[in-house]
Specification:
disordered C terminus; six-stranded parallel sheet; single chain; globular; binds zinc ion; Polysaccharide deacetylase family protein; NODB_dom; TIM Barrel; alpha/beta
Amino acid sequence: MRERSLAEPVGRAGRGRVACAVAPAVVALAHIGPAVTWLPGLRRRWFPGLAGQGRPDHVALTFDDGPDPVSTPHFLDALGGLGVRATFFVLGENVVRHPELSREMVRRGHELGVHGWRHDRPWLPSPGRDARDLLRAAEAVREVTGRDGPRWYRPSYGVLTSGRWAAARRAGLRPVLWTAWGKDWRRDATPESVRAAVAADLRGGGTVLLHDADHASAPGSWRAALGALPGLVADCRVTGLVVGPLAEHGMTGEDGPRTRR
Ligand SMILES: [Zn+2]
């Protein structure tokens, strides 16, 4: 199954823990129930706002897991060269570690969304911690963005549990997942493979997921995403699609199934 739950990076930090997660699976089932929306085919059809479906002449470019002083500046330079602004879903703990880099992202016209405080796995329900961590992360982003603060939330691993959903509501954030991804977290990812993976699902109004950091991915895998950017942007432009941040994506309507919150 190409598009599945924990398809975002199962990186060096997480592989060893998979076995430990089997025991609480029953608990997790009820808790992750609403996260059925992470099946992209399903969410594109039934939850277009959550999938990040926007105006048909636009593609939202998004990056997760940064900022990282080793990799993120390369993305800022590449995007600057391409004349593209994007949305970066950042981790709160990375923002407070690298506040100047975070501010530089904003200075260059990019938008910051919230990816959580740290890149943890939602195997067990923890609504109190979800709420605390998300508020803390949103506040960290607000401190560097100033004024209005962040608007968007993308849960780590794309798993939008009921607790995370409620936490996002409390923090005033709208959950947004993606419609196309580059599978750039893999050890064997190349610029060509990332460009092809995105192109396979690229449509007007879509939201593309890439990673500007290998925080939860194979070490150095960000280079594949970086190398894919020129081709990926060209693929959009040749079909008349404008690439930009979620703020300009024209998303309207509901952000998900309110009755399930
Ligand atoms: Zn992530």
